[in-house]
Protein backbone atom coordinates (compact mmCIF):
# COMPACT_ATOMS: atom_id res chain seq x y z
CA UNK A 1 0.00 0.00 0.00
CA UNK A 2 1.34 3.43 -0.95
CA UNK A 3 0.45 6.26 1.38
CA UNK A 4 -0.51 9.55 -0.23
CA UNK A 5 1.31 12.52 1.36
CA UNK A 6 -0.94 14.85 3.30
CA UNK A 7 -1.39 18.35 1.86
CA UNK A 8 -1.25 21.47 4.03
CA UNK A 9 -1.00 25.21 3.28
CA UNK A 10 2.18 26.46 1.61
CA UNK A 11 4.77 27.78 4.06
CA UNK A 12 7.41 30.49 3.64
CA UNK A 13 9.68 29.78 6.62
CA UNK A 14 10.52 26.72 8.67
CA UNK A 15 12.79 25.40 11.39
CA UNK A 16 13.32 21.71 10.62
CA UNK A 17 14.99 18.90 12.56
CA UNK A 18 16.46 16.23 10.28
CA UNK A 19 17.46 12.69 11.25
CA UNK A 20 19.67 10.37 9.15
CA UNK A 21 20.39 6.72 10.03
CA UNK A 22 20.36 4.79 6.76
CA UNK A 23 23.79 3.17 7.07
CA UNK A 24 26.57 3.62 9.63
CA UNK A 25 26.26 7.31 10.56
CA UNK A 26 23.84 8.44 13.25
CA UNK A 27 23.12 12.07 12.45
CA UNK A 28 20.81 14.95 13.36
CA UNK A 29 20.67 18.52 12.11
CA UNK A 30 18.61 21.67 12.54
CA UNK A 31 18.10 23.77 9.42
CA UNK A 32 16.42 27.16 9.07
CA UNK A 33 14.72 27.54 5.70
CA UNK A 34 13.20 30.77 4.45
CA UNK A 35 11.80 31.50 1.00
CA UNK A 36 14.34 33.36 -1.13
CA UNK A 37 17.11 33.18 1.48
CA UNK A 38 20.24 30.99 1.75
CA UNK A 39 19.79 27.85 3.82
CA UNK A 40 21.10 28.18 7.38
CA UNK A 41 22.50 25.01 8.95
CA UNK A 42 22.24 25.74 12.67
CA UNK A 43 23.69 22.39 13.70
CA UNK A 44 24.93 19.19 12.05
CA UNK A 45 25.90 16.37 14.41
CA UNK A 46 27.28 13.07 13.14
CA UNK A 47 28.20 10.10 15.33
CA UNK A 48 30.48 7.77 13.38
CA UNK A 49 30.45 3.99 13.76
CA UNK A 50 33.89 3.49 12.25
CA UNK A 51 35.31 1.92 15.41
CA UNK A 52 32.47 -0.59 15.61
CA UNK A 53 32.85 -1.78 12.02
CA UNK A 54 36.63 -1.48 11.57
CA UNK A 55 37.40 -5.04 12.79
CA UNK A 56 35.19 -6.44 10.01
CA UNK A 57 36.43 -4.25 7.16
CA UNK A 58 32.90 -3.13 6.30
CA UNK A 59 29.49 -2.25 7.70
CA UNK A 60 27.76 -5.06 9.61
CA UNK A 61 23.98 -4.38 9.57
CA UNK A 62 23.25 -5.85 13.01
CA UNK A 63 26.05 -3.87 14.64
CA UNK A 64 24.93 -0.71 12.84
CA UNK A 65 21.34 -1.11 14.06
CA UNK A 66 22.43 -1.51 17.70
CA UNK A 67 24.78 1.46 17.46
CA UNK A 68 21.97 3.67 16.10
CA UNK A 69 19.77 2.69 19.06
CA UNK A 70 22.51 3.59 21.53
CA UNK A 71 23.47 6.90 19.93
CA UNK A 72 20.39 8.47 18.41
CA UNK A 73 18.89 10.08 21.51
CA UNK A 74 22.15 11.82 22.41
CA UNK A 75 22.78 12.91 18.81
CA UNK A 76 19.34 14.52 18.52
CA UNK A 77 19.70 16.29 21.86
CA UNK A 78 23.14 17.53 20.85
CA UNK A 79 21.75 18.94 17.58
CA UNK A 80 19.00 20.83 19.42
CA UNK A 81 21.46 22.27 21.94
CA UNK A 82 24.03 23.23 19.29
CA UNK A 83 21.31 25.05 17.32
CA UNK A 84 20.44 26.95 20.52
CA UNK A 85 16.72 26.24 20.21
CA UNK A 86 14.01 24.37 22.10
CA UNK A 87 12.10 21.41 20.72
CA UNK A 88 8.96 23.54 20.82
CA UNK A 89 10.54 25.94 18.29
CA UNK A 90 10.47 23.26 15.58
CA UNK A 91 7.95 23.52 12.77
CA UNK A 92 8.43 19.97 11.50
CA UNK A 93 10.66 16.93 11.70
CA UNK A 94 12.18 15.06 8.73
CA UNK A 95 13.79 11.65 8.79
CA UNK A 96 15.25 9.24 6.29
CA UNK A 97 12.62 6.59 5.55
CA UNK A 98 14.77 4.70 3.02
CA UNK A 99 16.55 3.35 1.15
CA UNK A 100 19.12 1.83 3.46
CA UNK A 101 19.85 -0.81 6.09
CA UNK A 102 16.38 -1.37 7.45
CA UNK A 103 17.36 -1.60 11.13
CA UNK A 104 18.95 1.84 11.08
CA UNK A 105 16.20 3.40 8.96
CA UNK A 106 13.54 2.14 11.40
CA UNK A 107 15.47 3.56 14.37
CA UNK A 108 15.66 7.07 12.92
CA UNK A 109 12.10 7.07 11.58
CA UNK A 110 10.66 5.84 14.89
CA UNK A 111 12.53 8.56 16.77
CA UNK A 112 11.09 11.14 14.37
CA UNK A 113 7.59 9.76 14.80
CA UNK A 114 7.89 10.01 18.57
CA UNK A 115 8.97 13.65 18.40
CA UNK A 116 6.28 14.43 15.83
CA UNK A 117 3.55 12.98 18.01
CA UNK A 118 4.78 14.51 21.27
CA UNK A 119 5.05 18.01 19.75
CA UNK A 120 2.08 17.69 17.35
CA UNK A 121 4.24 18.84 14.42
CA UNK A 122 4.34 17.43 10.86
CA UNK A 123 6.42 14.38 9.98
CA UNK A 124 8.21 14.29 6.64
CA UNK A 125 9.58 10.95 5.41
CA UNK A 126 12.58 11.70 3.20
CA UNK A 127 14.16 9.58 0.50
CA UNK A 128 17.85 9.41 1.41
CA UNK A 129 18.80 9.75 -2.26
CA UNK A 130 16.71 12.90 -2.57
CA UNK A 131 18.71 14.32 0.34
CA UNK A 132 21.89 13.81 -1.67
CA UNK A 133 20.22 15.15 -4.82
CA UNK A 134 19.31 18.43 -3.11
CA UNK A 135 22.46 18.74 -0.98
CA UNK A 136 24.28 21.29 -3.20
CA UNK A 137 21.69 23.87 -2.09
CA UNK A 138 23.19 23.71 1.39
CA UNK A 139 26.02 25.89 0.13
CA UNK A 140 24.90 27.57 -3.10
CA UNK A 141 21.90 28.27 -5.30
CA UNK A 142 21.36 25.43 -7.77
CA UNK A 143 18.28 25.94 -9.94
CA UNK A 144 16.26 23.16 -11.56
CA UNK A 145 16.73 21.43 -13.92
CA UNK A 146 20.19 19.95 -13.50
CA UNK A 147 22.04 16.74 -14.27
CA UNK A 148 22.95 14.74 -11.17
CA UNK A 149 25.67 12.11 -10.72
CA UNK A 150 24.79 10.37 -7.46
CA UNK A 151 27.78 8.28 -6.53
CA UNK A 152 28.15 6.52 -3.17
CA UNK A 153 28.73 3.17 -1.49
CA UNK A 154 25.28 1.90 -2.40
CA UNK A 155 24.34 3.88 -5.49
CA UNK A 156 25.78 5.10 -8.77
CA UNK A 157 23.18 6.86 -10.89
CA UNK A 158 22.76 9.67 -13.38
CA UNK A 159 19.48 11.54 -13.09
CA UNK A 160 17.78 14.52 -14.63
CA UNK A 161 16.57 16.58 -11.67
CA UNK A 162 13.66 18.63 -12.98
CA UNK A 163 12.19 19.66 -9.65
CA UNK A 164 11.29 18.42 -6.19
CA UNK A 165 10.13 14.79 -6.50
CA UNK A 166 10.61 15.04 -10.27
CA UNK A 167 13.52 12.81 -11.26
CA UNK A 168 14.24 10.94 -14.49
CA UNK A 169 16.82 8.20 -14.50
CA UNK A 170 19.34 8.47 -17.32
CA UNK A 171 21.77 5.80 -16.17
CA UNK A 172 22.41 3.45 -13.26
CA UNK A 173 24.79 0.71 -12.23
CA UNK A 174 24.10 -2.76 -13.56
CA UNK A 175 25.80 -4.40 -10.59
CA UNK A 176 28.00 -2.71 -7.97
CA UNK A 177 28.27 0.95 -7.00
CA UNK A 178 31.51 2.90 -7.33
CA UNK A 179 31.79 3.33 -3.56
CA UNK A 180 31.43 -0.41 -3.10
CA UNK A 181 34.34 -0.91 -5.49
CA UNK A 182 36.45 1.49 -3.42
CA UNK A 183 35.57 -0.37 -0.22
CA UNK A 184 36.31 -3.78 -1.78
CA UNK A 185 39.69 -2.51 -3.07
CA UNK A 186 40.59 -1.33 0.42
CA UNK A 187 39.47 -4.62 1.96
CA UNK A 188 41.46 -6.73 -0.52
CA UNK A 189 44.64 -4.78 0.28
CA UNK A 190 43.84 -4.69 4.03
CA UNK A 191 43.91 -0.89 4.17
CA UNK A 192 41.31 -0.57 6.91
CA UNK A 193 37.88 0.99 7.22
CA UNK A 194 36.38 3.22 5.87
CA UNK A 195 37.89 2.12 2.58
CA UNK A 196 37.29 5.03 0.20
CA UNK A 197 39.46 7.62 1.96
CA UNK A 198 42.18 4.98 2.54
CA UNK A 199 42.38 4.20 -1.17
CA UNK A 200 42.43 7.88 -2.12
CA UNK A 201 45.25 8.61 0.33
CA UNK A 202 47.35 5.64 -0.83
CA UNK A 203 46.78 6.54 -4.49
CA UNK A 204 48.64 9.84 -3.99
CA UNK A 205 51.87 7.86 -3.77
CA UNK A 206 51.21 5.56 -6.72
CA UNK A 207 51.63 5.44 -10.48
CA UNK A 208 48.19 5.47 -12.11
CA UNK A 209 49.62 3.93 -15.29
CA UNK A 210 51.37 1.03 -13.55
CA UNK A 211 48.50 -1.46 -13.69
CA UNK A 212 46.28 -2.08 -16.69
CA UNK A 213 42.70 -2.26 -15.49
CA UNK A 214 39.38 -2.45 -17.40
CA UNK A 215 37.05 0.51 -17.96
CA UNK A 216 33.65 -1.25 -18.10
CA UNK A 217 31.09 0.11 -20.60
CA UNK A 218 33.23 3.02 -21.78
CA UNK A 219 32.05 4.19 -25.20
CA UNK A 220 28.69 2.40 -25.01
CA UNK A 221 25.63 4.18 -26.37
CA UNK A 222 23.93 4.53 -22.98
CA UNK A 223 24.81 6.00 -19.58
CA UNK A 224 24.83 2.89 -17.39
CA UNK A 225 27.70 1.73 -15.16
CA UNK A 226 29.31 -1.55 -14.16
CA UNK A 227 32.01 -1.95 -11.51
CA UNK A 228 31.93 -5.67 -10.69
CA UNK A 229 34.55 -6.53 -13.30
CA UNK A 230 36.82 -3.75 -12.12
CA UNK A 231 36.58 -5.03 -8.54
CA UNK A 232 37.60 -8.51 -9.71
CA UNK A 233 40.50 -7.14 -11.78
CA UNK A 234 41.84 -5.22 -8.78
CA UNK A 235 41.68 -8.33 -6.61
CA UNK A 236 43.61 -10.34 -9.21
CA UNK A 237 46.18 -7.58 -9.64
CA UNK A 238 46.83 -7.51 -5.91
CA UNK A 239 47.15 -11.28 -5.66
CA UNK A 240 49.68 -11.24 -8.53
CA UNK A 241 51.71 -8.40 -6.98
CA UNK A 242 54.54 -8.57 -4.45
CA UNK A 243 52.21 -6.81 -1.96
CA UNK A 244 54.71 -4.10 -1.05
CA UNK A 245 53.57 -0.59 -0.19
CA UNK A 246 54.67 0.55 -3.64
CA UNK A 247 52.62 -2.18 -5.30
CA UNK A 248 49.58 -1.25 -3.21
CA UNK A 249 49.96 2.43 -4.07
CA UNK A 250 50.22 1.65 -7.78
CA UNK A 251 47.08 -0.52 -7.65
CA UNK A 252 45.19 2.16 -5.72
CA UNK A 253 46.22 4.88 -8.18
CA UNK A 254 45.42 2.73 -11.22
CA UNK A 255 42.05 1.76 -9.78
CA UNK A 256 41.15 5.35 -8.93
CA UNK A 257 42.03 6.52 -12.44
CA UNK A 258 39.90 3.74 -13.93
CA UNK A 259 36.92 4.91 -11.85
CA UNK A 260 37.54 8.52 -12.93
CA UNK A 261 37.60 7.47 -16.58
CA UNK A 262 34.36 5.50 -16.25
CA UNK A 263 32.52 8.24 -14.37
CA UNK A 264 33.64 10.88 -16.85
CA UNK A 265 32.76 8.81 -19.93
CA UNK A 266 29.31 7.81 -18.63
CA UNK A 267 28.60 11.36 -17.45
CA UNK A 268 29.56 12.76 -20.86
CA UNK A 269 27.02 10.44 -22.47
CA UNK A 270 24.40 11.47 -19.92
CA UNK A 271 25.05 15.14 -20.69
CA UNK A 272 24.03 14.54 -24.32
CA UNK A 273 20.91 12.63 -23.27
CA UNK A 274 20.05 15.40 -20.79
CA UNK A 275 20.42 18.17 -23.39
CA UNK A 276 18.43 16.20 -25.99
CA UNK A 277 15.42 16.05 -23.66
CA UNK A 278 12.73 18.28 -25.27
CA UNK A 279 11.87 19.64 -21.81
CA UNK A 280 15.43 20.98 -21.41
CA UNK A 281 16.58 24.28 -22.92
CA UNK A 282 19.62 23.17 -24.92
CA UNK A 283 20.79 26.75 -25.41
CA UNK A 284 21.24 27.33 -21.70
CA UNK A 285 24.33 26.45 -19.65
CA UNK A 286 23.15 23.84 -17.16
CA UNK A 287 24.51 22.60 -13.85
CA UNK A 288 26.18 19.21 -13.43
CA UNK A 289 25.90 18.14 -9.80
CA UNK A 290 27.93 15.38 -8.21
CA UNK A 291 26.79 14.21 -4.78
CA UNK A 292 27.20 11.24 -2.46
CA UNK A 293 30.12 9.86 -0.48
CA UNK A 294 32.39 9.23 -3.46
CA UNK A 295 31.97 12.91 -4.41
CA UNK A 296 34.32 13.65 -1.51
CA UNK A 297 37.17 12.14 -3.55
CA UNK A 298 39.16 15.16 -4.77
CA UNK A 299 40.69 13.35 -7.77
CA UNK A 300 37.25 12.37 -9.03
CA UNK A 301 36.03 15.93 -8.50
CA UNK A 302 38.87 17.34 -10.55
CA UNK A 303 38.27 14.94 -13.45
CA UNK A 304 34.57 15.85 -13.50
CA UNK A 305 35.38 19.56 -13.36
CA UNK A 306 37.48 19.15 -16.50
CA UNK A 307 34.62 17.29 -18.18
CA UNK A 308 32.21 20.11 -17.33
CA UNK A 309 34.57 22.73 -18.73
CA UNK A 310 34.83 20.78 -21.99
CA UNK A 311 31.07 20.18 -22.27
CA UNK A 312 29.89 23.65 -21.19
CA UNK A 313 28.27 22.58 -17.92
CA UNK A 314 28.72 24.33 -14.60
CA UNK A 315 30.26 21.95 -12.06
CA UNK A 316 28.56 21.91 -8.65
CA UNK A 317 29.31 19.74 -5.63
CA UNK A 318 28.39 20.05 -1.96
CA UNK A 319 31.15 20.92 0.53
CA UNK A 320 33.03 17.78 1.53
CA UNK A 321 31.24 17.62 4.91
CA UNK A 322 27.90 17.30 3.11
CA UNK A 323 28.99 14.63 0.60
CA UNK A 324 28.96 11.74 3.01
CA UNK A 325 25.78 10.82 4.91
CA UNK A 326 24.54 13.70 7.05
CA UNK A 327 21.26 14.99 8.45
CA UNK A 328 21.53 18.54 7.10
CA UNK A 329 20.59 17.27 3.64
CA UNK A 330 17.63 15.38 5.13
CA UNK A 331 16.45 18.50 6.96
CA UNK A 332 16.86 20.48 3.72
CA UNK A 333 14.77 17.98 1.74
CA UNK A 334 12.22 18.04 4.54
CA UNK A 335 12.09 21.84 4.39
CA UNK A 336 11.48 21.74 0.64
CA UNK A 337 8.52 19.40 1.13
CA UNK A 338 7.26 21.40 4.10
CA UNK A 339 7.31 24.52 1.95
CA UNK A 340 4.67 23.06 -0.38
CA UNK A 341 2.67 21.33 2.33
CA UNK A 342 3.88 17.79 1.62
CA UNK A 343 3.65 15.91 4.94
CA UNK A 344 3.43 12.20 5.73
CA UNK A 345 1.09 10.13 7.84
CA UNK A 346 2.40 8.71 11.12
CA UNK A 347 1.83 5.26 9.57
CA UNK A 348 4.51 5.81 6.92
CA UNK A 349 6.86 2.82 6.78
CA UNK A 350 10.61 2.43 6.51
CA UNK A 351 11.74 1.18 3.10
CA UNK A 352 14.94 -0.77 2.38
CA UNK A 353 14.54 0.12 -1.33
CA UNK A 354 13.23 3.40 -2.67
CA UNK A 355 14.43 4.47 -6.14
CA UNK A 356 14.14 8.16 -6.99
CA UNK A 357 12.69 7.38 -10.40
CA UNK A 358 10.18 4.72 -9.35
CA UNK A 359 8.53 4.50 -12.78
CA UNK A 360 11.81 3.65 -14.52
CA UNK A 361 12.84 1.32 -11.71
CA UNK A 362 9.60 -0.67 -11.93
CA UNK A 363 9.59 -0.84 -15.74
CA UNK A 364 13.27 -1.58 -16.20
CA UNK A 365 15.15 -2.33 -12.98
CA UNK A 366 18.92 -2.06 -13.42
CA UNK A 367 20.15 -4.09 -10.49
CA UNK A 368 17.55 -6.55 -9.32
CA UNK A 369 13.88 -6.70 -8.36
CA UNK A 370 12.62 -8.79 -5.46
CA UNK A 371 9.93 -8.93 -2.77
CA UNK A 372 11.06 -5.55 -1.46
CA UNK A 373 10.89 -3.81 -4.83
CA UNK A 374 13.43 -2.58 -7.37
CA UNK A 375 16.88 -1.58 -6.17
CA UNK A 376 17.38 1.02 -8.91
Biggest sheet character: 5 strands, mixed
Strand content: 15-25%
- The total number of structural domains is 2
Output the strand order for the largest sheet.
4-3-2-5-6
CATH architecture name of the largest domain = 2-Layer Sandwich
Count of extended strands: 14
Gyration radius (Cα, Å) is: 20 Å
The shape is globular
Which H/E pattern describes the elements? EEEEHHEHEHEEEHHHHEHEHEHEE
pLDDT average, as an integer?
91
Number of helices: 11
In CATH, what is the homologous superfamily of the largest domain? ATPase, nucleotide binding domain
Distance between the termini: 20 Å
Q: What would you say about this model in short?
A:
By secondary structure, the chain is an alpha/beta fold. It has helices spanning 50-53, 61-82, 102-119, 128-134, 178-188, 195-203, 228-240, 245-276, 298-311, 328-339, 358-363; strands at residues 6-7, 13-20, 25-34, 40-48, 92-98, 123-127, 146-151, 156-163, 166-172, 287-291, 314-316, 342-343, 369-370, 373-374.
Amino acid sequence: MTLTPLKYPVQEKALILGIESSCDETAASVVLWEEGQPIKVLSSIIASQNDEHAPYGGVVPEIAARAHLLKIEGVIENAIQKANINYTDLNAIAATAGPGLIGGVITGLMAAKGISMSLSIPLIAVNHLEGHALSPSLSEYCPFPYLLLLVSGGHTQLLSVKGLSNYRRIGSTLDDAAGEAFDKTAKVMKLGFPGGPKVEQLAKNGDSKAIELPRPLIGKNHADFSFAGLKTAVSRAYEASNKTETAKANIAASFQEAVCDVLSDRSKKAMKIFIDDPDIDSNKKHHFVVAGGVAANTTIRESLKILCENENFKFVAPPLKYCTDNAAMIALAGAQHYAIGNYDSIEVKARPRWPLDMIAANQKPKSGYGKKGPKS
